[in-house]
């Protein structure tokens, strides 16, 4: 199968419910597959995208509010070191800068750990670049994820 | 997420298949945590066919580990694919949970 021509930019509007977020991840997974990214490598990119989407869906607006703007976009290209994906979310919820979140204590025991609070940490650790901007009443959060080239 | 459950030799083994993600954790949480209804339960998760685990999935795994500790039970996992291992390493779960390479390792970890 011939991989889709790159670079490629795709964008999708999202809803807050879990089923639509799962559909958005399926959509991104298909785009990664078309770009020649094997499922075992795409998994990490999908984790990052899920954390970004669920964070916005749960916290950007009060419960029950339908978003005016909630979108996921991805810029996909191939470089010498493998596939690169610029994953971005845009929303018109309350201002929130994920890059300012304190990292959790990952050395804590099972008993001493709070349940939850790992999503943003995964995003920050699994991507090589992150940027948050608040512009025009909207949050713009972008991260760069890279898939290393498979061994020859 | 599909979950196939087997119980033998006093050990409950859940074989997970698919994504342990935001959408699937409701089902996984009910099934896995339900295994600890009896005190001193011994529970194993087969992770070999898990495509990925997000923080929602980590939440269920941590709740299971806490439930095991509080009920004198035992809890172990085995067969983490590389994508899952990466998430466990970043979150620190690799250091505090009982994780085996093979099913036999996990059975030893729970005393089965």
UniProtKB/TrEMBL annotation, chain A:
Keywords: ATP-binding, Nucleotide-binding. Residues 17-140 form the Histidine kinase/HSP90-like ATPase domain. It comes from the Bacteria. This is ATP-binding protein. InterPro entries: HATPase_C_sf, HATPase_dom. It holds the Pfam family HATPase_c_2. Gene3D superfamilies: Histidine kinase-like ATPase, C-terminal domain. GO terms for molecular function: ATP binding.
UniProtKB/TrEMBL annotation, chain B:
It comes from the Bacteria. CDD domains: STAS_anti-anti-sigma_factors (cd07043). Pfam families: STAS. Belongs to the anti-sigma-factor antagonist family. NCBIfam families: ant_ant_sig. It comes from Neoroseomonas terrae. This is Anti-sigma factor antagonist. Residues 1-112 form the STAS domain.
């Amino acid at each position: 199968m011939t991989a889709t021509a790159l670079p490629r930019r795709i964008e999708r509007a999202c809803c807050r419910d879990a089923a639509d977020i799962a559909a958005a991840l399926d959509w991104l997974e298909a785009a990664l597959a078309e770009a020649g990214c094997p499922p075992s490598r795409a998994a990490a990119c999908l984790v990052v995208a899920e954390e970004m989407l669920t964070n916005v869906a749960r916290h950007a607006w009060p419960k029950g509010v339908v978003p005016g703007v909630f979108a996921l976009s991805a810029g996909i290209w191939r470089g010498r070191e493998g596939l690169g994906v610029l994953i971005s979310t845009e929303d018109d919820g309350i201002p929130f800068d994920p890059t300012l979140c304190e990292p959790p204590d990952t050395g804590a025991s099972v008993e001493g750990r709070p349940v939850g609070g790992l999503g943003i940490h995964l995003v920050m650790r699994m991507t090589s670049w992150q940027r948050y901007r608040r512009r025009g009443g909207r949050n713009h959060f972008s991260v760069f994820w890279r898939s290393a080239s498979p061994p020859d | 997420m599909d979950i196939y459950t087997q119980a033998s030799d006093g050990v409950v083994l859940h074989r997970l298949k698919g994504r342990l993600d935001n959408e699937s954790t409701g089902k996984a949480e009910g099934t896995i945590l339900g295994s600890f209804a009896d005190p001193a339960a011994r529970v194993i998760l087969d992770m070999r066919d898990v495509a990925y685990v997000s923080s929602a999935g980590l939440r269920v795994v941590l709740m299971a580990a806490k439930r095991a500790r509080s009920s004198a039970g035992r809890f172990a996992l085995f067969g983490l694919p590389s994508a899952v291992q990466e998430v466990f390493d970043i979150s620190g779960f690799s250091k505090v949970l009982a994780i085996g390479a093979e099913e036999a390792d996990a059975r030893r970890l729970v005393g089965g």
